[in-house]
From TrEMBL:
It comes from Penicillium thymicola. This is alcohol dehydrogenase. It comes from the Eukaryota. Keywords: Metal-binding, NAD, Oxidoreductase, Zinc. GO terms for molecular function: alcohol dehydrogenase (NAD+) activity; zinc ion binding. The gene is adh1. The keyword Ribosomal protein does not apply. Its EC number is 1.1.1.1.
Amino acid sequence: MSFEIPDTQWAQVVEKIGGPPVYKQIPVRKPGPDEVLVKMKYTGVCHTDLHAMNGDWPLEVKKNLVGGHEGAGIVVAKGSLAHGIEIGDHAGIKWLNGSCLQCEFCETSDEPLCLEAQLSGYTVDGTFQQYTIGKAAHVLKLSKEIPLDAVAPILCAGITVYKGLKESGVRPGQTVAIVGAGGGLGSLGTQYAKAMGLRVVAIDGGEEKKAMCEQLGAEVYVDFTKSTDLVADVKAATPGGLGAHAVLLLAVSEKPFQQAVEYARSRGTIIAIGLPANAFLKAPVFETVVKMVTIRGSYVGNRQDGVEAVEFFERGLINAPFKTVPLQELPEVFELMKQGKIAGRYVLEIPE
């Protein structure tokens, strides 16, 4: 099988910190020996893409960056050392674009922690373009039965929250509070939690997000814009009023990171996933100690986490709420994201 590959392609390029992205033509790269070239069909838009454009994090961003890291498409070319995936296969490009595969972290299945990790849409060009390069060892081979638009958000948002739930150690029948439950990560987190036998308390703001969270299976919705005592409301929603066994912090503002210990139950675990710019995670020492609360960070999943997260989706247990718009409308999606007006996920359709 062979594909005709053009010399140039359409892409959304961040030419300066703060953006906006510029829709323009750029060259199509050829894959290296251990790489594949994926013709993008769809790509999700993650809040990380906005952080990358704005240069919010203490990590150097590639100049003239093509963002995006939730891309699904078809392999159209591969290098001579690209094993395990073939031309014509469907594949996903994730946040982790590549790693060294030989350091201690890579060899113990913690490849996201590799010091030489390449990050799609941040340190290397990502999926907001027609053709994207990925390391063959890290692209996720997808069944051709899986719809590429619907699976796109799973490739970052889904894997990230699934990994966070695993890291929390929460068990079936226990309660998890999800902060930012109405967003792209939260909408998937609720579903993974339900599929894992957990009870969900959703925390977010607004009636649209309330309707979505309840539809996805949250037992209780706590609206932070209306609550006069958020901590009391969350605790009241948990069995015995003792608080949540686990808290997933997906928020893009700092305040929720300061409150979580107050409504986590004794021996509860707080998982920090969201990355608000210039924020600090603070907790009252007394409560943290006497309640024996665990606070830990959770980054993106490893390669096996990606396989498992997609398997949940393939089995029909996960249905990512999304809206589809053309790649050209990425700036408008970013504006909605800045205003906190997105329920679920936006997926960009890539032009042929």
